[in-house]
Here is the input.
Amino acid sequence: MISIHVQILLIILFWNSDCQIIPRIEECGLSCSQGIHCKSKPSSGILNSFCHDAPASLSSIVLKSMKISTVMKCVQGSPCSLHLNIKGTLSLDENIRGLEICSLSLDTQQSQCTNVRFARKKSKMLNGKKVQIQFNCIEVNVAQHIYVTMKTVPNYCEVKLSQEYYVEDCRNSDVGKYIPACSAGKFDYNVDRARKIISVNVSNFLRDQDYYVRLCHKWFTCEDVGAFAVIKGKESLKSVSLKYSQLLPCLCIEVWLAIPDARRIQLCPFENDTKALWDNIVYNPATQTLAWEPACPVLVMVNLCRLTKSNDHCEDIQNSSKNSPEKVKYSRVDTHPRLCMKFTTKQGSWVKCPFAHGEFPAWKMRTAAAAEQIQVFFTSQTKAQFSVVVCNRTQLASCESVGMHHSVSVGDSVSITMSREMCGSTICIQGWRTDVDYSVPLQTCDIHCGFCGQTYSDGNSAKAMTHRMKSVHSLY
Here is the structure.
């Protein structure tokens, strides 16, 4: 339960960070409480960099409670900008003439300092009173890491406040929408399929700003595909060319400003190019394992199937359906040329036959007619076990058994007696391997048979049983 609470807390914190609304100001400035007139002016920070021992009467907690936040300055007709909103509390003292507020960018080591001075007469009258100072004229960039200090003037040793602060990045919806640095402009692309190159051109870009461009594969995050390219803001040519290996549905183009955590513009224009997904089929002869692993996340149903002799249909093999977003494996698989993999998505179905090119030995089934029997035998370059049955092909994808199963080894044969009930245009002899988990069933169909000296009930003379020998290729 503790881990669940922690996860929920983290989700709330990240949600608040990304969705927090940045307060608006139209003008930046300085304000002091207690009716004290104060004014600010830029400072180099050098003169006040060395500290002095504080008078004995001066408390070390004369400075208290420095708080930092971000405000957004938006003026009609101009782009918005981000500023630090710094608040602190000072106990007025006759030994203190003012404050120095400095910010140091830990990314660039650039600093900005401001001196805050109080009207002497008023501050002396309120000696010992607490005054709150608010200053919001230090402009910052998106996602900057800032180190802020607040010191007395003169600079007394050990009388100082400091704090690190992270400026919101482009993931904050308010910052991402209104700060120009979070916009990567617009881009268009061209695909050269022959050379496997995608050309990206950026337009509406910020002046003198560099841009990053990359190709990536979109999974939970978008994973790099090669190195990213840089479009230099000072160069006249605002385009780059990126090479790719395959046009996959998860191949995306990303463009973003060359600043930390800039918002990225992402385009995935090849979502319908699913053809290449089905090529990643691997067979391991040592383990007889057939595997397919998606190069992109895809919702797909995978089946093993038997390609028909006409090559226009692939019949599903029973108990071979798999629905997995990750790697699909089939153990102990028959390497027959007509054993294929079928991939089905919302867009349609694709069939890939990894053994069709003859790299692996294929077994063959032959039949021969003799009197009232059909002789069935198998040939194979490897040891194998087979089963044979007479079946009635009532549907395209099913053949129902009408006799007993016969087991056969390579080199042996089995004789099947054909009774009158077994004859007909839909009767087939079906054989398959039994020493593997997934085998292609081969069929010899359209068997005509008759029995000499016997007469059918309709009075027609029976023809002698005949059977056309099927060549190896006709069985594939």
Observations:
- The CA atoms of residues 194 and 310 lie 33 Å apart.
- The longest helix spans residues 2-19.
- The chain has a mean pLDDT of 82.
